[in-house]
Amino acid sequence: MIKEHEFEKLLESAYQHIENELGLRHIRPSLASEFQNLQKAHDAVHESMTLAPLLISLPSGQEPAWEAKSAFLTYHWEAFHHAHRSLYEALCAYYNVAFVLLRVTFELLLKGAFWECLSHKRFREKSQVLDNNKAGKKIKNWLEEIFKQTPKVKGEFERVSASIYDTVSPKLEDQDFRPSLKTIVRQLDCWGIFNSIPNAEGWVYLDLYGKLSADVHITPESIDIGRRLARNSSDLFEHVLLPDTLREYARLLQRTMDLAIVIELNIMDDLIGQYEETKLNLTERLDMLEQLELEYSFKRAKELLGLVA
């Protein structure tokens, strides 16, 4: 049996070993290398999380808004933590991992928005992209059968949008019921979830998603050793700071958070249009959106507040 003092020594040794493997020593030089860009990207992650509760904070006596937007907010919460973890990996010079987690963040935001919209009748009735897609038609037809069999489910979706997951989760194991991300992007665009982003399908899917997908595809130049080889690094098997990669990462993180907030605003646009308290909360965040250079978020916020001619 290990004695207490021996255990403490083993624990300290294990901690030091893990701390070294995590690459924590790279955090300070990474911050020094790209401080302003990283600070803006980091603060944008927090702005996305800060804004959500402000937009669902309704006057006392009103029905809680969280439940009605819970399908999106469930994924939104997860996206916040993935974005944070992604940033930490980048700071520790594990760039491939950072980009992969950032793509997961991107997909969480889009899929949360997709299921949020699909849980509400006003969106289901205007889903022509899904109507012309094999998987989209299957999921819509299947939902209609559920509504016929159990009519109260439709009302439950409206009140608590996350309840859609109880219904669809078993079917999502079947690939035939999973629309592609490209289909989801096109449908979200038609629903107005990317409002304020010009040429949204190109910007969201072809540009941003295309860049984030490179690391998932594991091409030689996208893995960390490949990046170091391309830069003639002296030690291919040592995680070292790559300033240009870190700069690219910070830019993509900020763009992903700009998209996140645009989605957030468009998911919550009915609340912004209905409640003065929600408008006031959004108004108070305008300066921060501008300071963080979240171009499309700032533009959309002003549009929703009636500040754009």
Give the key terms:
18 helices, globular
Question: Can you give a write-up of this model?
Answer:
There is one protein chain. This protein is mainly alpha-helical. It has one domain (27-304). The protein has 18 helices and no strands. Helix 3 (35-55) runs parallel beside helix 14 (243-267), helix 5 (95-118) crosses helix 12 and helix 14 (243-267) packs parallel to helix 18. The protein is globular.
H/E element string?
A: HHHHHHHHHHHHHHHHHH
Number of helices: 18
Rounded to the nearest angstrom, the radius of gyration is: 22 Å
Give the domain tally. Answer: 1
For the termini, the CA-CA separation is 75 Å
- Sequence stretches where pLDDT stays below 50 over 5 or more residues: none
Q: Could you report the average pLDDT, rounded to the nearest whole number?
A: 90
Outline: globular
Instruction: Tell me about the largest β-sheet.
Output: none
What's the quick description here?
The chain has 18 helices and no strands. With 309 residues, it is mainly alpha-helical.
List the SSEs and their pairings.
Blueprint: H1 4-22, H2 27-33, H3 35-55, H4 70-91, H5 95-118, H6 121-124, H7 128-131, H8 134-149, H9 152-159, H10 164-168, H11 181-191, H12 200-216, H13 224-230, H14 243-267, H15 269-274, H16 276-283, H17 286-291, H18 295-304
Helix pairs in contact: 3-4, 3-14, 4-5, 4-14, 5-11, 5-12, 5-14, 11-12, 12-14, 14-18
